[in-house]
Specification:
With 306 residues, this protein is α+β, with helices and mostly antiparallel strands. The protein is built from nine helices and 18 strands. About 11% of the residues have low confidence.
Length: 306
């Protein structure tokens, strides 16, 4: 890794982006259908998120904000423009505070790089309007989002070039079969696990763009260095769930995930931000052995329970 209030949903277009809603789908899904842009499906559940990052919808995760504006006698179009500007301001504040990894906030990258600041400005101009309309008090509201992932117009398309190299990923660590019994090895090899769920429930884990899984010896068994650059931009490294059942329903780890209890969560070398998971040495080897069968780590089939 490199150092470093509306009653209905509406079809809306603003700042070069359009969203359509299909009421025949349950839940209702909104899709960005802009030509040449990253497509994103927004559920009704997500439209209720205000001024926050949604980390729990995989490739359809996004950063959400709401803005409000008044016309001051200049008509609804001016109120709408003011609401968009307000929503963009909120989006910027949220983006600055996103934890990139244990030691880095997005604002740190923005301070360091004119290029990053310019790209963030572009994200705000291209933010997707997902709901809008007049309010009873005379204000106009606009809800907007910036996709977390996707090749174009996403948060990841800004961050990944700053934290990852385009070269070949580092190989995952070698399995230490001596840390496992023969029956454990045979059981894991027969199971054909489809992904891994790291259960850190109740440990105070904080979501981050680039988490690491360590074992208690300090060995990193999963991190950005091990992953394909384009895949991380496309769907990120992990999903986050509130409990193990939610992690199973999430789908990212497939229909037969290996569930591992974390020993603790930890920060980085220069921080106490609780973003990284720590598992036992034995469980780390179980994960690595399961990966030899199904490449689940390479596929980023990983869910964290926080």
């Amino acid at each position: 890794m490199k150092s470093f209030k509306s009653k209905t949903l509406v079809v809306a277009a603003a700042i070069g982006a359009a969203v359509s809603f299909n009421p025949s789908v349950n839940p209702i899904v909104a899709s960005n259908v802009v030509s040449g842009a990253q497509s994103i499906n927004i559920t009704v559940e997500q439209t209720k998120i205000v001024n926050a990052v949604d980390w729990s919808h995989g490739a359809n995760s996004a950063i959400f904000a709401e803005g409000r504006g008044r016309s001051n006698g200049k008509g609804q179009s001016m109120a709408r423009l003011a609401a968009i500007t307000d929503a963009q301001r909120h989006l910027l504040g949220i983006i600055k505070g996103v934890q990139i990894d244990a030691d880095t906030l997005m604002v740190d990258l923005m301070i360091e790089s004119d290029t990053v600041r310019a790209k963030i400005s572009g994200l705000l101009k291209g933010a997707i309007v997902i709901e809008e309309g007049p309010l009873d008090d005379g204000e106009y509201f606009v809800k907007m989002c910036v996709p977390l992932y996707g090749a174009d117009g996403s948060f990841a398309s800004v961050v990944v070039p700053e934290i990852m190299d385009r070269g070949a990923p580092d190989p995952f660590p070698t399995v230490n079969r001596n840390a496992l019994s023969q029956s454990e090895i045979q059981s894991i090899e027969r199971a054909h696990y489809t992904g891994v769920v790291i259960n850190a429930d109740g440990m105070g884990m904080e979501p981050t763009f680039s988490p690491v899984i360590y074992d208690t010896s300090g060995r990193a068994i999963y991190g950005a260095d091990n992953l394909d650059y384009d895949k991380v931009i496309e769907k990120g490294m992990v999903d986050y769930a509130d409990d193990v059942d939610g992690a199973r329903r999430d789908g990212r780890a497939g229909n037969n995930p290996l569930v591992i209890d974390a020993v603790e969560v930890r920060g980085g070398q220069n921080s106490t931000n609780q973003v990284n998971a720590v598992v036992s040495v034995e469980d780390a080897n179980k994960i690595l052995l399961a990966n030899e069968t199904n490449d689940m780590l390479e596929d980023t089939s990983v869910v964290f329970v926080k």
